[in-house]
Every structure is written in structure tokens, then in C-alpha cells.
Specification:
Layout: E1 2-3, H1 7-10, E2 15-23, H2 29-38, H3 43-58, E3 74-80, E4 86-92, H4 95-107, H5 112-118, H6 121-130, H7 133-141, E5 145-149, H8 154-158, E6 165-171, E7 174-183, H9 184-201, H10 207-218, E8 226-230, H11 235-238, H12 243-255, H13 259-282
Parallel strand pairs: 1-6
Antiparallel strand pairs: 2-4, 2-5, 2-8, 3-4, 6-7, 7-8
């Protein structure tokens, strides 16, 4: 259990993240040097710095949510295997690329006048001129981080189990994050089993398409990788979270054609996240 300051994170809407940490050999020579150099930064100091920088971008006098700095930063994860082997994994932040993708998502879901107010075309043009096109292309091909605001997609919860490794980040009595870790190959097995079960017993569920997308995404990375489900400040609303357990029971119930058990699991899951959805609408 780690202690951390969280002023910057608490000033932003609660977001969750699904990250892939890869072994050093999965990166190019240049990125290996950068990963080792930037990965020395304390994890919680990095999260706080990233949140504070995001807050500054959002409150600029002239609306411009894009990061102006282009230097890549890597998160580091140290794991210990069953045989005592210690391995260091890395996850590139890819902030510039993720910000561009987020602005493109807004472009398809927001009225043009409001989009221009929040993400002016002048800011987009200036950002396009700053972006390293080669880095952008490489990031798009292997984007290591997915994010969600005011919730966690159910597909992400299928990747982890209740007995996986957990890390709790606190600031006094405030819960800043709950992180669950799982080997990538196990996460792939879980998502494939869930997808196969849904394809047979509940092919109409939207979750099936989400699982197919997750499976394709995870296959882009080194098989020795580790996934991290970071609840962020969502943890303060649901932790300790039994959602991975309920989802697993629901999938197993479907596999056994136990529709009553599957419905009960889904009801518990929905009730747990109803309060979070209501807070999102209130905000």
C-alpha cells in the first residue's frame, strides 16, 4: 500500500486506465534508452505531474488542450515471478498521440460550435505542426494505454480476477487508485474464454464486440507483458470492487446454461455501477 499526494488528480474528472507494460526488449534501441532514463521517476510523482500538467492545459487563457512538450515518458513496473525472478516492464505514456485521438473522438460526438470552443481549429493546426509523424504512426500501431472517464468498461474487468496482484494508493484516508495486475497471456485466455461463451450463449450482447476488440489489441504486444487495470479515482467510489468476480461468475453461469445465476451476477454488477453513472450525469 503506497502513500501519495493527489491534489492534481482530485481536480480532474475520475478516469480509469488499461495499460500494457512490456519487457525492455520489446522496444526499439532508442526507446530502451528513454525507458530506462525516464522510468526512474517515482510512479506516483509521475501520475501527479501528468494530472497537474493536464489541469494547466485545460485552464489556459486561450483554449488549447494539446501538450506542447514532445518528450516521451515511460512508466515502470517491477514484477517478481513465481521463481523469484525480478523483471522490469515499461509502458510509454504516448500522451501526444492519445490527446489527438481524444480530440478526434470529440469531433464525432459534439456540435461543431462547441468543439471549436473547446478544441479550436487553430490549436489543432498548431499541434499537427508540432507532432512527430513517425512517432505518431508508431504509437497508433501499438497504443499501450486505453482510458475511460467516470467508469470502467466491463470488458476491461474480464481481463483480471479477484486473486490477481493488487496495489492500493492512498493519501491519508483518501483512496487515489486501486491497480490490478495480470500477465498478458492470462488476460488473453480470459477474454477469449468469455468471448467464446458469449458467442454461444448471448451473441446479441454488445460486450462481445468489445471483447473481440480487446483480444485483437492485446495480441499486438509481447507475450511476456503485464496488463495494469488502474481504477484511478474511480476506486474511491467502488473499492473494494467485486466486479471482476461477478463478471467471472456470470460468464461461468452462461457456460453452464444457468441463466438465473448469470442474471443475478449481472444485477449485482449493474447495481454497483449505477451510482457511478448517476454521479457522471450529475457532473
Amino acid at each position: 500500500m503506497a502513500q501519495a499526494s493527489g491534489a492534481g488528480r482530485r481536480a480532474l474528472p475520475p478516469s480509469s486506465y488499461l495499460r500494457v507494460f512490456e519487457p525492455l526488449h520489446a522496444f526499439s534501441d532508442a526507446d530502451q534508452l528513454l525507458a530506462v532514463a525516464t522510468g526512474r521517476m517515482n510512479r506516483e510523482a509521475l501520475e501527479e505531474a501528468r494530472a497537474t500538467a493536464a489541469l494547466r492545459r485545460l485552464t489556459r487563457p486561450l483554449s488549447d488542450p494539446f501538450p506542447h512538450e514532445q518528450d516521451e515518458v515511460f512508466r515502470r513496473l517491477v514484477t517478481t515471478g513465481w521463481d523469484g525472478t525480478v523483471t522490469t516492464m515499461y509502458c510509454p505514456d504516448q500522451l501526444s498521440t492519445r490527446t489527438i485521438l481524444a480530440s478526434e473522438q470529440l469531433d464525432g460526438s459534439m456540435r461543431p460550435a462547441l468543439l471549436e470552443l473547446l478544441v479550436p481549429s487553430a490549436a489543432r493546426a498548431a499541434n499537427a505542426a508540432r507532432v512527430d509523424q513517425q512517432r505518431f504512426t508508431e504509437d497508433i500501431a501499438r497504443l499501450h494505454t486505453r482510458s475511460a472517464t467516470w467508469g470502467i468498461p466491463f470488458g476491461w474487468l474480464i481481463l483480471v480476477h479477484e486473486d490477481d496482484e493488487v496495489e492500493i494508493i492512498e493519501n491519508g484516508h483518501d483512496l487515489l487508485a486501486g491497480r490490478i495486475y495480470a500477465p498478458l497471456h492470462q488476460a488473453l485466455d480470459r477474454v477469449r474464454y468469455a468471448a467464446a461463451t458469449l458467442a454461444i450463449h448471448a451473441p446479441e450482447m454488445d460486450l462481445l464486440d468489445e471483447l473481440a476488440t480487446l483480444s485483437e489489441w492485446l495480441q499486438l504486444f509481447d507475450n511476456e507483458s503485464v496488463i495494469e487495470l488502474d481504477y484511478g479515482l474511480i476506486a474511491a467510489l467502488v473499492w473494494p470492487d467485486e466486479s471482476p468476480h461477478d463478471l467471472r461468475l456470470g460468464i461461468e453461469s452462461l457456460a453452464e446454461s444457468d441463466m438465473t445465476g448469470a442474471a443475478a451476477s449481472y444485477r449485482r454488477l449493474s447495481n454497483r455501477w449505477l451510482a457511478v453513472r448517476q454521479l457522471a450525469r450529475a457532473n
